[in-house]
Amino acid sequence: MKNTISKTNVISAIFIILGLICAIAFNSIGQTIDENGILHEPFGLIPLSYIFISLGFLLYIYGKIKR
Question: What pTM was computed for the model?
Fold first, then answer.
């Protein structure tokens, strides 16, 4: 029996890595407050990281159950 990496494992790893990249990008970009007191932050990266990581774990579990 061969030990091969399935497509679902590769795709789930890509989703998890994308989620981690979004989380790291959010923390490294940082937040600023302009002279008018308005907060500027890349808030869209937070839900994207949650979605990508969740999709990655769900796809990984699906691939394990499918086998």
Answer: 0.83
